[in-house]
Amino acid sequence: MPDLYAVRVLGVSRQAVRLSVARVHPDAGKPAPHAVFALMLIYDPIEKAEDAEFSNYRHLKDAALVREVGGRKVFTAEWMNANAQAFVSKVTRSGPFLDIQLTHPAWGEHLRKRMAWQTTAHDVGPGLPAEPRVPAMEQATVPRSPGERTPKNVGAGAKKAATAKSPAKKAAKVKKTAVKKTVAKKAAKVKSAAKKTARAKQSG
Asked: How would you write 96-119 as a 3-class SS string?
């Protein structure tokens, strides 16, 4: 399939990506303000990571989007239609420019300003509604229910349990206290007896 558009990254922020998408093929229509088309464009640099023009961008293979998508076999038209809106919340078009709002900063972190390439990406519709997605590593730290503990509070609970006194330790402490009291009582009796003896000698 021939290239349809020339794409250039004009800006990248935590919330959005701004792309210039210019037609290079006579059959190409206006760039579509749809999530599926936007996701295709965002994924293009990853797809082209081994091309010479991207040889300076060694980080592409480790991008969060790579880990989430799981490779080319998963990144199919059917998958994109079902999942695009999980990554792209909104797309607006102004002439040849597309402003792509992301559902999470990680989905655009692999893009760099002035990246440029040509693409065969094309409009296949807006895609199906999908819940916003976060990277898998962050999902592991988010409780699925109000009563479910995260690694953070699990650690706190373990620490509390580790510092709590066991019954054996409590018994040992009680015994030690009792011994101290017994010794103190005996010492007081000896001291009292010594005083009495001393008084008796003085009176005699």
From this structure: CEEEEEECCHHHHCCCCCCCEEEE
